[in-house]
Design a protein that fits this description.
- The protein is an alpha/beta fold and about 325 residues long.
- It folds into two domains: about 210 residues, P-loop containing nucleotide triphosphate hydrolases (Rossmann fold, 3-Layer(aba) Sandwich), CATH 3.40.50.300; about 60 residues, Alpha-Beta Plaits (2-Layer Sandwich).
- It is built from eleven helices and 14 strands.
- The strands form three sheets. It has a seven-stranded mixed β-sheet, with helices on both faces. Strands 11-12-10-13 form a four-stranded antiparallel β-sheet, with helices on one face.
- Strand 8 and strand 9 form a beta hairpin.
- Bound molecules: adenosine-5'-triphosphate.
- Adenosine-5'-triphosphate binds next to strand 1, strand 2 and helix 2.
- Pfam families: ABC_tran (PF00005).
- One of its GO terms (molecular function) is ATP hydrolysis activity.
């Protein structure tokens, strides 16, 4: 496989065989003891992609798209049904023990810390598990404590920490053994905007200082916009977009959203010639395609024909952009 990539995935497929029962109840349960019906779920359908060292890659998709299944295969937790995967020279499901020492995982919704113990104790436990040399452990601990400003935080029992403080400790726990590759699963879920911003700042700092590659799985598009240069979108088990965020946005610079407020209720019939994104009698959001329409003319036309009191011209939001990929209105692999 290609030495320039930290992860290379070729034609990866994962099929789950799910036990099916037509009816509920004891009778149906008894019947399945003798005759089982199975349904095949193709969670990952022959996907291929690669990631370069030092990237912060967004790996996103709607619920049930196949993200967790793919990440579990990449981290050696699951066997695939077919395909090839190379993670830092290892085949994850065959070399799990070695690979585990070279990767880190942070789950926004699952803690690796011990509830009743201070985080510093969990860090020392990880030192033993990962056989981190004394000096590396001390240097990394000093680096993270100072970078994340958690000198006092690490000494308190985890149950007394705020979610933001706990997340910082989760990061330290996952990174003390200096893994070159870290999987982040919803790293900012439940955090307030300041803590989200702080966590994103630390991810970027660690990526810059240590060259750590991060794979970020998230439904928070703020994480993607702030952190990731490249994104891979998976939907129904297939990759529908795999390129830079910049190229993704380029598709949409030809479109503008006009948010209009009316002085009185408007009949939706009066807007029938427009591509309406939302409408509620006294306000509307209208999408204008600049390749087909002249923005200036459209605005003059609206102003003349409708009781407009306020009007704002906006770019398409990242949410709209990603939604159009999820809705399969756009697919592209770079
Ligand atoms: N152990 C399993 N057995 C059977 N089907 C499974 C199993 N794990 C996942 N699936 C199915 O595979 C598909 C992909 O699931 P997966 O958990 O990978 O999605 P996801 O993108 O991580 O979703 P979410 O954002 O909701 O976590 C779904 O249809 C799911 O129901």
């Amino acid at each position: 496989m290609n030495d320039n990539y930290i992860i290379e995935v070729k034609d990866l497929q994962k099929i789950y065989k799910v036990n099916q029962r037509d009816k509920s109840g004891i009778g149906a349960a008894f019947k399945t003891l003798f005759k089982r019906d199975y349904k095949i779920v193709e969670a990952v359908a022959n996907i291929s992609f690669h990631i370069q060292p030092g990237e912060i890659r967004g790996f996103i998709g709607p619920n049930g798209a196949g993200k967790s299944t793919t990440i579990k295969i990449l981290s050696g937790v699951l066997y695939p049904s077919s395909g090839e995967v190379d993670v830092m020279g290892y085949t994850p499901w065959l070399d799990r023990e070695t690979l585990v020492k070279r990767i880190g995982v942070v789950f926004g919704q699952k803690s690796q810390l011990w509830w009743d113990l201070p985080a510093i104790d969990a860090f020392h436990l990880n030192k033993m598990i990962y056989e981190i040399p004394d000096k590396t452990f001390k240097d990394n601990l000093d680096y993270f404590i100072s970078a994340l400003n958690i000198e006092d935080v690490v000494k308190k029992p985890v149950r007394q920490l705020s979610l933001g403080e706990r997340m910082k400790c989760e990061f330290v726990c996952a990174l003390l053994h200096e893994p070159p590759l870290v999987f982040l699963d919803e790293p900012t879920i439940g955090l307030d905007i300041y803590s989200k911003e702080a966590i994103r700042t630390y991810i970027k700092k660690i990526n810059k200082d240590k060259g750590t590659t991060f794979i970020v799985t998230t439904h928070d598009l703020g994480d993607i916009e702030d952190l990731c240069k490249n994104i891979t979108v998976i939907n129904n088990g297939t990759i529908t977009f795999d390129d830079s965020l910049e190229n993704l946005k380029k598709y949409f610079t030809k479109k503008k959203i006009i948010d209009i407020t009316f002085s009185q209720a408007v009949d939706p019939e009066d807007l029938k010639d427009y591509n309406i994104k939302s409408f509620n009698d006294i306000s509307a959001s209208i999408e204008i395609n600049l390749e087909e329409n002249n923005l200036r003319e459209e605005i003059y036309k609206m102003w003349g024909a409708l009781p407009v009191i306020d009007l704002n011209i906006n770019n398409i939001s990242i949410e709209e952009v990603i939604k159009s990929i999820y809705d399969k209105k756009l697919s592209h692999t770079g």
